[in-house]
Amino acid sequence: MKKVEAIIRPETFRALREMLEDVGINGLTVSEVAGCGQQKGQQGLFRGNTFEIKLLPKVKVEMVVEDEFVDEIIHIIQDTCSTNTVGDGKIFIYPVENAIRIRTGESGKKAIV
Ligand SMILES: Nc1ncnc2c1ncn2[C@@H]1O[C@H](COP(=O)(O)OP(=O)(O)OP(=O)(O)O)[C@@H](O)[C@H]1O
Ligand SMILES: [Mg+2]
């Protein structure tokens, strides 16, 4: 199992949610976050003057899935969350040791469907 964590533009979340639903991904965790990347929160490309680091609002989407779904999810995120401009976000993939459904005690793959 892997955790796919995507940090995306808030305005792209709705489209991503719909696409994930279409391929049967139901379990996800969503948070409103703030962050910055290599432009240090500046919207656009700057040179010269120093400037303060700014934190921009982003949405973090986390989903734990079976390994074989990871590539498809990455493609969906790239298709729905890209505007081809700086600040489109990032995807991080983590290994997941286990998952347990609290109600039933099911674990592993059975717990993430
Ligand atoms: N190395 C990182 N670690 C953790 N979070 C990150 C990292 N890089 C980016 N993020 C998060 O992703 C958000 C979007 O980053 P962003 O898309 O601006 O990345 P970037 O590296 O600057 O790429 P780009 O040049 O396309 O903007 C940030 O606001 C931050 O929340
Ligand atoms: Mg950036």
From TrEMBL:
<dbReference type="GO" id="GO:0030234">
    <property type="term" value="F:enzyme regulator activity"/>
</dbReference>
<dbReference type="InterPro" id="IPR017918">
    <property type="entry name" value="N-reg_PII_CS"/>
</dbReference>
<dbReference type="Pfam" id="PF00543">
    <property type="entry name" value="P-II"/>
</dbReference>
<dbReference type="GO" id="GO:0006808">
    <property type="term" value="P:regulation of nitrogen utilization"/>
</dbReference>
<dbReference type="InterPro" id="IPR002187">
    <property type="entry name" value="N-reg_PII"/>
</dbReference>
<protein>
    <submittedName>
        <fullName>Transcriptional regulator</fullName>
    </submittedName>
</protein>
<dbReference type="InterPro" id="IPR015867">
    <property type="entry name" value="N-reg_PII/ATP_PRibTrfase_C"/>
</dbReference>
<comment type="similarity">
    <text>Belongs to the P(II) protein family.</text>
</comment>
<dbReference type="GO" id="GO:0005524">
    <property type="term" value="F:ATP binding"/>
</dbReference>
<dbReference type="InterPro" id="IPR011322">
    <property type="entry name" value="N-reg_PII-like_a/b"/>
</dbReference>
<dbReference type="GO" id="GO:0005829">
    <property type="term" value="C:cytosol"/>
</dbReference>
